[in-house]
Amino acid sequence: MSESSNPPAAVVDEGAPIYTPAPGETQLTFRAVLTGTLLGAVVCAMNIYFGLRTGWSIGGSLIAAILSYSIFNILRPKIPFSRLETNIAQTAGSAAGSMTSTAGLLAAVPAMMILGYQLGWLELYLWAASVAWLGVFFAVPLRRQMVLVEKLRFPTGTATANTIVAMYASGADALRKSRALLLFAAGAGAFTLAKHFVPELEEPPLPEWFTSWFGKDATLTAIVAVPAAYTFTVLISPLMLGAGVLIGMRVALSLLAGALVAWGVLAPMVEHWELVKGPTMSYGSGSRGWILWVGVAIMVADSLTQLALSWKTIVNTFRRTSTTGEAADTAAASEMIPNKWWIGGLAAATVLTTASSWYVFDIPVYLTLVAIALSSILAAIAVRSTGETDINPIGGMGKVTQLVYGGIAPGAMSTNLMAAGITGAGASQAGDMMQDLKTGHLLGASPRKQMMAQLFGIAGGILICVPIYMLFMKAYGIAGMPGLDPAKAGQAFPAPAAQAWKAMAELLSKGFDALPKGAEWGVLAGTVFGVILPIARKMAPDKIANALPSALAFGIAFIVPATYSVAMCAGAVIFYLWKRRSPQSAKELGFAIASGLIAGEGLMGVVNSILTLTGVGGH
Prior knowledge:
Blueprint: E1 4-5, H1 30-54, E2 57-58, H2 61-75, H3 83-97, H4 99-102, H5 108-114, H6 121-131, H7 134-139, H8 143-149, H9 155-169, H10 171-197, H11 208-214, H12 218-229, H13 238-272, H14 287-309, H15 311-317, H16 339-361, H17 365-389, H18 394-408, H19 413-443, H20 447-475, H21 496-510, H22 519-539, H23 542-545, H24 551-556, H25 562-581, H26 583-614
Parallel strand pairs: 1-2
Helix pairs in contact: 1-2, 1-3, 1-20, 1-26, 2-3, 2-9, 2-10, 3-9, 3-19, 3-20, 5-19, 5-21, 6-16, 6-20, 9-10, 9-19, 10-26, 13-14, 13-25, 13-26, 14-18, 14-21, 14-22, 16-17, 17-19, 18-19, 18-21, 19-20, 19-21, 20-26, 25-26
């Protein structure tokens, strides 16, 4: 889970550069790194809020490229902001933004907290600062094979390069996108701040005349009351609307279908059959805790089946491809990344990760070394998947590691989760680094300078991601956490990725004893569904395959409240209607507006957390 979500790229690249830098063109500058890192920190903060609510995260490359260009276009400094500086800004920005998933703050870390582990600032900083660098050094030696020899598309990296070239050719389009992003971010932020003081804005109650009219008839009353009891309520959320725009109709309809099956059919059924006896929304004794296992089974089965169906990708990762037709490198030999840099960096990161794993999570040294070795292999597979499909299967890589550690370290749930966290960290930063190196190749940039920008961006992301995460934990917490204040239960993050990782660790540790009464049949059905659907999509003609639901989204709907799925589907429908009415404007502004909606609510969520902790406003 926690797969990165990036806008689709229409440009197909065969490895040829699209820009030739001017002699001496400025590149790695303080202003470019600082701007990119600050923009990446914004992406990082919004990704924590977004990811803990939906399970997805957003890449920061295009956001950082568009906004950094727009900032300096408005400031108009004496030395113009160059294309290669914009590339450095997006490199630092994407590196900082990806620290949300790299540090495990969407999956492994909150899963540990759901299991009752207490993690403080020091522990999280040590962990983030250790695992953050692994993926960068895994990626460097893969550059020649993936970018120059095989010329993999890396759609987001290619789209970012083309966007940078297009912005400098016609700046009006970039400024228009930037204005749309900032305008919708401001509107979303204002709404999010207002709902802190007036919660009814987010979940408006039915009008009094409506409820009184329905209340006259018991059947009509049930039509309203029963769905609401199973979380089918109205949710007005800029973030969910923006997410709907990004995920598209197929995924959005999959979420809606999953919600109808999970919350509209299964939850009432298990209560009727008395398989659960507690409140509906209780993880421990309610139907929410029962249907969670079905959703996890679907997601795990889908991830592993998708991985198995990508066997050619896995084989090609470790097969040497002929260098005939290898693309010429656009950077001078002096701008290549020296071997001693990535080898030395990997050695240092290995020592740091081993030490922090032992100190923070009491993981034996040899088990951490096994995790790092496994991570290097799985990161290479993740990089290839990213290059071919634009999907970085962080969740799938983590689940493979969990299965391995279920065998070599049975019963050790913390080791199981955090070893998978090491794999996820490697896959996250390796995929991001290679997207950036693809962009740099197309623009004739220096890989050495890009690596330095990546490292600066990671450092900035580490500084911002931990305090934002801790702030959210203190203000709201994660659904299912021990000791969660009952008054905060309705505001707690559902953290679907963390719930899946935690459930997997429990199942591998305790076996079927971890399941609620009768849930093994739901797990079996979910597993079968999660295996059959990706196989059917792989074998079916494109027209039919595109109509089949996404098993991942279908499974997520079992974990998040139904109102989330309905709200995201509403966003997708609105965007679909916009595309039908005005395809060009939807294509040009859709990503910018969606990013603005998500960023506005995500960033104001940080402010609202502070207000909640200080007791200002709210109910």
